[in-house]
Specification:
Radius of gyration: 18 Å
Number of strands: 0
Mean pLDDT: 90
Helix content: 55-70%
Distance between the termini: 59 Å
Low-confidence stretches: none
Order of helices and strands: HHHHHH
Largest sheet: none
Number of helices: 6
Length: 115
């Protein structure tokens, strides 16, 4: 078993609040959740690299917002966003989020259509 170390990082306040709720409901700690998710990410990335499979790197770039959906579809050689969503779920990666301003503008547009 390897030794643990403390490190300092930052996280969005709302995300931390929500993570506390998840941890409490799962009867665990935020530290345990973080370690589990980070371990999965690192081990999956390393396994993909060792096998020469670059698909995980492509999916990770998409998840981190470094590539858009069109570029990701092209790099993976797939033709539908549904297939991309399935691959993201299988890779255990979150979908990228639009910037808050874009999300708000979309919601306002939908509200205008409804009202």
């Amino acid at each position: 078993m390897s030794a643990t170390v403390n490190f300092t990082g930052s996280v969005d306040r709302d995300l931390l609040k929500r993570a506390k709720v998840v941890a409490a409901k799962a009867d665990t700690s935020i530290n345990a959740l973080f370690n589990s998710e980070l371990r999965h990410l690192v081990e999956t990335f390393e396994a993909a690299e060792m096998s020469g499979n670059q698909n995980f790197r492509v999916l990770l770039d998409f998840s981190l917002g470094r590539a858009d959906d069109r570029a990701t579809l092209a790099r993976l050689g797939i033709g539908s966003e549904e297939d991309l969503f399935l691959l993201m779920a299988q890779a255990h990666l979150p979908m990228p989020r639009l910037p808050e301003g874009v999300t708000r503008a979309m919601a306002d547009s939908l509200d205008a259509l409804a009202g």
